[in-house]
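User: Run a structure prediction on this.
Assistant: Running it now.
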Amino acid sequence: MEIRVLGPVEVHVGGAEIPIEGAQQQCVLGLLAAHHGSYVPVGGLIEALWEDDPPKTAKTIVQLKVAQLRKTLGERIASTTAGYALDVPPDEVDLGCFRRLAAEGRAADRPEDATAAWARALDLWRGQPLQGIGTAWVEQRIRGPLLRERWDLLEEHAAALIELGRHREVPALLQELRDEEPLRETPHALAMTALWHDGRPAEALELYHDVQRTLAGELGVDPGPRLRDLHQRIVEGHRPVTPRQLPRDVAGFVGRQAEAERLRRLLRGDRVAVVTGAAGIGKSALAVHIGHQLAADFPDGQLHVDLNGHGQGDPLPPERVLPRLLGALGVPAGARPTGAAEQLDLYRSTLATRRVLLLLDNAAHAEQVRPLLPGGSSCAVLVTSRDALRGLALQGARSVRLGTFTPGESRDLLADLVGDDLISADPAAVAELAELCGHLPLALAIAGANLIGRAGLREYIKELHADRWSTLAVEGDAQATVAAAFAGSYAALPPEAQVLFRRFGLVPGCDFTASTAARLAGADQATAKRLLARLASAHLIEEHAPGRYRLHDLVALYAREHCTARDDDPAPLHAYYLHSARAAAPLLAPSFELLPLTADDPPCDGEEFADAGAASAWFQAEQHNLLAVMDQARGRVSWWLVETLRAFVYQDYPPDVVIALATRALDEAERAGDRAGQAGMHHTLANASLVLSEPREAIRHCELASKLYAEIGWETGVQLALTNLVVAKAGLGDLHESMAEHERIVRLWEAREPTTRLAGILENYAIKLLWAGRAREALERQLRAIRIWEEHGGRPAWEGRAYSVLGDVHVALGDLGQAIGAYEHALAWAKDAQLAGTLSGAAIAHHLREDGARAAELARRAVREAPVRGPAGRYEEARGTLARVDASLGLDERLSLFRDVLARYRDRNYPYFDTRTRVWLAEVLLGSGRRDEAAAVAGEALEAAARYGLRRLEGQALTVLAQVKRSAEDARRAAELHREYGHRLDEARARAVLAQVV
């Protein structure tokens, strides 16, 4: 039997419908089905049938309707004094099936399984539940809640489809919900997101304006923050990232049918596949070819990284690869963690629900690959390496080994390159040429490029015999096999192209542009572009991205070992990167300032950038080459290059990488006796230590930098180092000493012309004043910082941070209306980690206004937005805020959140946030009746607040202790402290406790 209520009420047996006569009888059955698993009292059935005007015989009529239903359903209706219940298995009621499938989807491990279950659940709906029957009571108590269940599942289903990349299905799926519930913002947001992800931003924006007009007309309000934020991101062009990083597919790909089929099977099964073989065997070509064939199976994108396992320079370690992968996956630079381990956590979390193909090309060993493997099963990984990478078998990897081409495959490749006519004219010469190339695809491709335009093969074969690196007949020696083809290609170049090619042996990075080629060739850019085109046509380089070129690793090895002359000098290239980085740095970090260069340094020869956008684009493209040049450079250029990293340490360079480079450069500067270089490196190490939350190391380097800057007479450097010193000391938590020092630093910068640097210093001072409880002084400094930013044209991003701090100050002063206004302003600008901090602050403000639902909503969003290992502990702050404001969480869950947050704060040395969290924990424990535990935690908070000079937290801890111990003295001390510092709400609470105690 099948009972249907998700539409007209119907009963089916064996596929045939059994009629249920009369609307009242259908209504009774519908109510019993809607309450399946529980009893419906007779009074409830009477209300459903007649509302407030039942006949005197209503109870008798209900009993009659139940008796009639029993004739149809048999003994499937149970009755007790509690009422009536439908006694059938849940799957015999379509509503029961709907709820079971909804639960299955929510419990599914993969979004594919969830959407499949939810699609079946939604297919059960045939219209309005209990369609066409019942009173207004049924509409409000039954039909409305059931529709909301459907709407909620529709939203979850739509979100999962977006996650799977099935964007095109979403707008139509949500149309009915949007029509029925035009004031419900979530379906509009999901539809906008799907249109945006589907490359239809204009339609997404039009949908927003429709919603805007509807809300204005119906309620006289604007769309909520979620829709406004989404609208802003679409307008600003922050298009969701679906990486498509595979290099261009090989034209006329031949051979490898069996290997290709095995790879397709492995990757479609979400496995790790390793393509191994000798150099030049065609591993990368096959991997890229398979990647393009399977691209449609991975709708969330394809990632590609050359790990440089066997190229010039050292293999790329995972900590240098992770920032590149996170950027490709759309994680903004500011939201990325600073440490490699935390970046790895975020990387795996980002991939956990995506279906992505990851191609790791040219790996050196298993340990280079293993950390980059996604943690879940939704992604597939394709690795190429000369090494067998047997260690990856522990992660379930399967290998596909490539051998040399067969004679037939070699012939087919040559024919595709130079045309079948030339190849068919002399089969014997083709066979000899293939043998000389060792049947290696790379050697064959280079030989084919050199044959273009020739009338026959024999002359070229003679050239190979006469001039080659070593014999191509040595089986299995890939380096020796390919060398002859390199020699022939090099010999065929005009002299100026030979000069550029051999100087590519000097390039330490991943790739190069016309700008770097011009420096190497000693020519202008037009000439460099012409030479690059000549080298590309000879297959000695490839244009892997527009305007960016690279050499195959064996070609680079050949250029370095067999072509580079003694008089070839990398100094012009180093100078280019030095001056380009120094030009980009102040645009990306406006408060950044570098020690001026002298006549002993290379003359200026770098890029000129019109604005910060151009500088950022150059940095993103060149960041890995810049690091490689730093690895190679020595002397003054070395430490001046590393010095620029102070501007980039908050971008894509992990602090531990910066520390390694700066430590090496510092050693060189010390050996050379260069005090300016030593000062710059200590300054750089101080900045990196601050990012890593290592204030003691930062203090040491700041003091040394300040001393050295003073010795060489650079006063600006002294002030910069002292500014960082104050920040580092405040990081240790002792505000007693650092507040006076911070005031002195402010006065030093005030003596100069007002700049955004002064605004930033004032804001940092306002934060420390706020921590110290001096909220009125913090307000004055923060308002002044905002005025300076407005007057001196700071980047718009400052508004997110500045108004968030302003909101925190107003909360401390008890001005909750102004605080919420400041947070709303900040939310329009805040990005990444700052967004999470702003949401946390706003949640506390609404909590203090006793708007619990809004506070919990904001806190949950803060947890979603916060980077797990980002700067300033935003994730911990968000989770602590959630535990404080969301009373719907169980007590055990709230306490578990608090304890985890406190453990993380102890590891990261955040005394202010640690103490604040203890105050919150004590308040929650007190509210739940656990007075002894509340007293212990409040005592810990009071001791820490007094030790570190956190006066507002000291007063709050005293207030909790006053409640626990019923201590008038503690309450009086708290009230007086809060009155002294202007904490109006805190004072009022302390006085209320005092009144209760007295």
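The mean pLDDT is 84.
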